[in-house]
Amino acid sequence: MQQSLLRKLSDKKAVIGIVGLGYVGLPLSIRFASVGYQVIGFDNDVKKIENLNKNKSYISHIGNNVIEKLNKKNFTATKNLKKIKNVDILVLCVPTPLKGNNTPDLSFVINTIKSALPYLKTGQAISLESTTYPGTTEEIVLPFLTESNFKIGKDFFLIYSPEREDPGNKNFSTQNIPKVVGGVTSECLNVGIELYKNIITKIVPVSSTRVAEMTKILENIHRAVNIGLINEMKVVADKMNINIYEVINAAATKPFGFTPYYPGPGLGGHCIPIDPFYLTWKAKQHGVDTRFIKLAGQINSSMPPYVVKKAANYLKKSKISIKSAKILILGIAYKKNINDTRESPGVEIIKILKDKGAYVQYHDPYVLKFPKMRKYSYNLQSIQLTKRSIMKYDLIILVTDHSNMNYEIIQKLGKRIVDTRGVYSDGQYDNVVQA
User: Fold this and answer.
1) pLDDT per residue as tens digits for the range 400-424
2) Based on the structure, what is the number of domains in the chain?
3) Catalytic residue among 271, 349, 367, 398
4) Does 199 share its domain with 256?
5) Which domain holds residue 318?
6) Is there a single domain that holds both residue 277 and residue 311?
7) Distance separating alpha carbons of residues 333 and 340, to the nearest angstrom
8) Spatial distance between the Cα atoms of 330 and 326, rounded to a whole number of angstroms
9) Is 157 helix (H, G, I), strand (E, B) or coil?
10) 3-class state of residue 397 by DSSP
11) Rounded to two decimals, what is the model's pTM?
12) Residue 230 sits in the same domain as residue 307
């Protein structure tokens, strides 16, 4: 059965099913379809399916023209999981969030597997791409398959290949980001390599799914701890009246041994704020206390309150209390030039300010309406940024440094600005403080 599946993949006659058409699944669907595979995209969000069928994109860096081209190829978007019986490979790109106590929430993975089981058949393969702790593929996914009498590596194949999407990055796309692939058996690994090598320039095979899972976790923890370090350095430098951005830029001239990271208002996105907790939880089961990782998480989580404290102190100098202040947040996407608000520090800053009684509005050209989120629900819409509206607010907090905002006008007309991204770090402005 392995040889039959390998031939289908090599000849591009295999049908690829993608479960989860978000920031990972949709670009992956586009890539598979672009090289000639038939693709069936599954999602339980009816609105996404409707948008795709109308050639409309819901991801800012993917244009409607791309969706139109996708639909002209062998692509179908559906909510009907019965069509899983028609696919050869099922790629899972579902969320892996945290529960309220910062423990892993694998309900999306588990529920997807349970829902798919009635339609799975011999000769198929599953590739899990969702970021998770080492052991998930073997400990969570594998038992469902073996209990259904599939013989893994012989008549069914199980792969783990972590997503490495960076939404909005113009230099790296699904095609040219190297793909780490691990299999439960060597036969599974061979299927995984054949699956991805036709759509991705470089494949990085590893010895097991656990290694592949740990690779993804390490990548994100590496960023989390270094951002935590630079955020702590920012606080120290601020107390010493030192420009941290000037320090970083000077240090970055060293041609070896230093990699520049930049501070911000806190971590955002689905991976970096969440993944360290996945490893911390799993490490506890092995008797290891990941103190360094937890400390970085605490520092990064403290950044939104730190920003609000800086804002309160700045207002206090003008004898304005936060409770009576009109405050504008610039940007609620978690990073520049995209519309993704998952785990966004801007959203958390809005919550803290509102809890303190402030009148808060926001401007974000990529997020025109405040989205429905698990932890937040506000009836807000992005305001228009005009000369009059800029002058209206007691304070502006620059959270997300989108490229299409006129920072010169904002600085000239804004009464007070708290800059969390270093947009104004290269000059001395009477109305700007860094945070």
Assistant:
1) 999 999 999 999 999 999 999 999 9
2) 3
3) 271
4) no
5) 302-435
6) no
7) 5
8) 13
9) strand
10) strand
11) 0.92
12) no
